[in-house]
Amino acid sequence: MLPEExxxxxxxxxxxxxxxAVPLEHAAGHALAVDARAEENLPxxxxxxxxxxxxxxxxxxxxxxxxxxxxxxxxxxxxxxxISKGQATRIFTGAPVPEGATLxxxxxxxxxxxxxxxxxxxxxxxxxxxxxxxxxxxxEVALDAGTxxxxxxxxxxxxLGIREVTVHRQPRVALVASGDELCLDPAARRPGQxxxxxxxxxxxxLGHEGLALASAGVARDTREAHRAALGAALESSDFVLxxxxxxxxxxDLVRPTLKELGVETLFWRVKQQPGGPLYFGRKGATFxxxxxxxxxxxxxxxxxxxxxAVRRFLGRNEVRLPRVPARLEREIKNMSGxxxxxxxxxxxxxxxxxxxxxxxxxxSHTLRSFARCNSLAVIPAxxxxxxxxxxxxxxxxxxxxx
Length: 402
Hints:
19% of the residues lie in helices and 31% in strands. By secondary structure, it is an alpha/beta fold. Strands 7-4-6-5-9-8 form a six-stranded mixed sheet, with no helix packed on it. It has a six-stranded mixed sheet with strand order 16-13-17-21-20-18, with helices on both faces. Helix 1 (3-13) runs parallel beside helix 6, helix 3 (198-208) runs parallel beside helix 6 and helix 4 packs across helix 5. The two termini are 33 Å apart.
C-alpha cells in the first residue's frame, strides 16, 4: 500500500489511551483529554499595558489636557482608589486600572507638573487598558481537548489557577534491535559488527514528545533470543518497535517469531523509499512496528508511521508532521514507482519563499544526511521527475526545523 494508506490504516486502529489525572507540573508532553474551562477571567482585573498614567477622560484625551494626580497603582500593590473625570493615577505595567479610568497615557507623552500632569500628545479612549477577561473569559473553553501541553499551554493553565488536568496516559514504548551484527559497547565490538544506533535516535525523537523508551535491548539471531525479547516487550508495552530483521533474509526472524507469539499481521511492506519493508501488527491492545534496520530508513518510518500513532494514543489533535510547500532547488528523479522521502533542508530563499535543497546523499544507510537536514521532501509514487523550480510538499522534522 501507499504510505498515506498505511498512515490511515494505523490511525484507524490506534485510539487514545486510558484517561489519567495528573498534576499540572507533570503534564508536559501530554494532551488534554477534556476541554480545559476557565473558572475566572484572565486577566482577573483590568490591567495597564504600559508604565504611565491612568486617566479618567471618556472619549479620549486631547493634547494639552491637564489632570490632577490622585494616587498610584503598582503591580502587586493595594487596589487603587477610584478616580473621576479630570483625575489621573500613576500606574505601572500589569497594575490594576482604577475604577473610573478610561485610558492609559504612556509616561513618554506626559509632562509632570507638581500634582498635575499635561499630555504632549492626544491619547485614544481605552488605550493601553487590558480589560478583565481579554485573554480568556470565565466559563469559556481555554484549551480544547487534544491540545498538546507545551510551554505556552502549561503557562496558560497555571495562570488560570488550574492545578490538575485530565489527559491520556503516556504510552509505554519498548524497542528491540534485531541482529548479531549489533553491538552496544564500543569496547567489545568484534570485526564485522556495527554499533547499535537506532535506539538513541528514537529515544531523542520520543523525548521531543515528552516521552521515554520504557525498555530497549538487542535480540541475537536465534529464535529463542527473539522469543524472549519480543515476548517480554509485548507483555509490558503499548507499542513495540523492532529495528531490523523484518525482511526476507535467512536471519530475518522478526515476523515468524511475532507470528509464533500470536501477533496478528495488519500489513507488511509499503510503497515508499526508504523504508519499504515496514511491518505493522497487533496483539491485544499492543501494537508492533517492524522497522527497517538501516538507520535512515528506521527514522523515516518512525516519523511517518510510528510518531502519528504515538500522538494518537496521547490524544493529540495534530498527529502528523507539519507539511509545507517549498520550491525545489535541485531536480529529483523517482523511477522506483514508490513515494520517496528525500532528506532535505528547508529555508527561506533570497526572494522570501521557502526553498528546499535535497541532500546529495540519499542512501538508506547514511545518517549524516539525516543529521544535517530538517525535513523530508515528498515525491509521490508515479511522479518520475520533480524538476528544479517545482513546488513540492515537505514534512518538517520536530525539533530540528531552523
